[in-house]
């Protein structure tokens, strides 16, 4: 019998399973440039890591005084992103290993992301991760994005799992906060080094301060087995 019987694992997508933030930055840069904002930097982008695309573009509208609707901004950004997502997104090799180890044990898995359903599907298909990750929840499908717990609670509901039996993998402080609010354990792999000491990460059951450079699929699997 698997040591992980009764455990379900929920993955954030961007910056956790896949290295998609460079694509999101480029899509954002192209979108803002089309409306006259030409000085959007990577540092500017980092403040939106872990926040849904819809909330990101809503903030852009206010921050930059853009004379267009949030819906238009969302459509334009998603179009730019989808041009990049399917062919230019790399899955982290150790995350791919971890997914394979969980799949071999029959562990139920889901993806819960702030990205649009179309973007999630493009990335999972393009990386081949859709072979194991069939349950997907977008923040577009729930009332509130991270740091609210909605997207994780919906993922647990679709898996038929109690929140207390779920373990979340997250790279961003809002996601770690959402996992905690959902009553789920969290493996935190910070994407932005400057955010490692954010109080939200202090609630994680396992915090890998070195981010993806410290994460290994086998070590994460062994941790789950020890703490199940």
TrEMBL record:
Keywords: Hydrolase. Gene3D superfamilies: HAD superfamily/HAD-like, Putative phosphatase, domain 2. It holds the Pfam family Hydrolase. CDD domains: HAD_BPGM-like. InterPro entries: HAD-like_sf (IPR036412), HAD-SF_hydro_IA (IPR006439), HAD_sf (IPR023214), PGP-like_dom2 (IPR023198). The keyword Hydrolase applies. One of its GO terms (molecular function) is hydrolase activity. This is HAD superfamily hydrolase (TIGR01509 family).
